[in-house]
Amino acid sequence: xxxETSAPLDEGWSGEGCPMGAFAxxxxxxxxxxxxxxxxGGTALGGGxxxxxxxxxxxxxxxxxxxFHGYHQAGIxxxxxxxxxxxxxxxxxxxxxxxxxxxxxxxxxxxxxTAGGTPPKVSPTATPSDNGIVGPTVAADGLTVTVDVGASxxxxxxGLSSRKPVQLVTMTxxxxxxxxxxxxxxxxxxxxxxxxxxxxxHALIDILTHTKSLMKLRWRIDGQRNQERxxxxxxxxxxxxxxxxxxxxxxDTQMNQWVWVQPKSAEPAWAAGGTYHVVRIVxxxxxxxxxxxxxxxxxxxGRRKASGAPMYAVGENANDLFDPIYTNDPQGLITALNSxxxxxxxxxPQTAATSTILRRSYDYDRSFNLQDLDMxxxxxxxxxxxxxxxxxxxxLEAEALVPYITPKGxxxxxxxPGVRDERDYxxxxxxx
Length: 432
Description:
The chain is of the alpha+beta class and 432 residues long. It has helices spanning 26-39, 96-115, 197-211, 252-258, 286-290, 294-301, 340-344, 386-395, 428-431, and strands at 83-91, 144-150, 188-194, 215-224, 275-284, 358-359, 362-365, 375-383, 405-415. The protein has one domain. The chain is 20% helix and 16% strand. The two termini are 25 Å apart.
């Protein structure tokens, strides 16, 4: 399992996404404080006390490092960071040798960026070795870079068709989808997560700069994790707690059963340690949802809005970790039969094998103005078998939430096994 070198930001996370918080980086706060001190001659405005200098007092927040090397990639079992970028790319490498060069380059950039450090020095008149967004020294800031392959990479360009993961296919629309081809599919998916927004943007620009001759951007979606209000799991743009039910990322038995591809399975030998990755860009119809009474919203989701607890728990402070119980509610009088959580996991013997996935989702906001809100969910999940997700989503075609959401894009991908050591690189087992 992936270990972190410092305590995670979200110890209580148990669910569907990656949390959001302070987009404003500490350098802005420090710069603002220094600017005020200078403008006021070193004193607080309107007073005689000197402004404190956070840098001088050594209050720089710690930058945590999440190990890059391992049997599995980081960014899957890793507790969710604050912000993320999903980057889908089409490979333009002309042959297998150039494709290998692409994966080697991705590996070297991810290895450096996730560890942090000082970029190589160059002459003041030469092209910079780093974009400088995070300053002269790159802080790790909990960065993870997770690389996936899509079904289209296994066409006839690189001779990889016989090595394609068994269940990897191109995403096709479900009944209520409105998939935009410009926001769907891709040869590669790169998931970039970190504790700060500028860290993810720095990594995005770095990766695209170093790989521009071998791949090109197809689509991108930026995500965030909202704060836990008031406590527990974070809320989505509909105001409901999102991500309550998940296998435990610290339990190897559960992860090996539900998430990681195992050796000597039906999958190609190189795929062991990887996992199927689903990304769904789901637009929320915010204005329509706000007109729905809370009691009806709760029946649509199958949980209490204030607490996140199952419908049988009526108190605002009820525990959101209470398990829904359907055996005494066969007609759906308490938890509606077409509610979101009941269709996702009906708790029947027939659906037990297709009701467990590892959710790690984000919220997005691409709105240009209040009249044209483009807000929603970058749904993000991992599972050992893709059919677990597709079977679950097929059940959800009948959910009561359908009028308030429209899936717009995304794709199915296979998250590669981890990079084992300094000599290893992404997709080495696939390419050799």
